[in-house]
Specification:
The protein is α+β, with helices and mostly antiparallel strands. The protein is about 25% helix and about 20% strand.
Amino acid sequence: MASASAPIAEVRPDNLFDRASVGMDNLLNSGFQYLGIRYRFGGTTAEKGFDCSGLVRRVFKDALGFDLPRTAREMAGRGEQIPRDDLKPGDLVFFKTMRHAFSHVGIYVGDNRFLHSPSAGGRVRIDDMNDSYWRGRFEGARRLVDDSAPSSATTDNRIR
């Protein structure tokens, strides 16, 4: 006896909160897949390696279709400024690791931790923002995803 199987329906979150949660899950999962990829100055691919902004750019493009600027400094000019105590997963966090402001960027993942591609000799990893090195270099955070926009909105409507 052959049984007719019903087509599998696409599961779609019904409310705004669930849609935003799915988007952040996609963003974080996209970033986690690159854990362990080596650092490369100017790097923008997993095959050749990532620098900090190359990693952030790739993750946002893969997960949400966003085209972010190429450098951490340019990214720092986008979005809404967020106080450290209001950080949410998916926010960009910026640090002064060189002689100029906003020289390093990562993606906040929750619990005072962030995903980033650190520096020469390093690999994509998650670090604690409360570690003395990062705590003393924190410069600010930006929120790029507008949680009030539906997930089917265009990039221009969702990125600030």
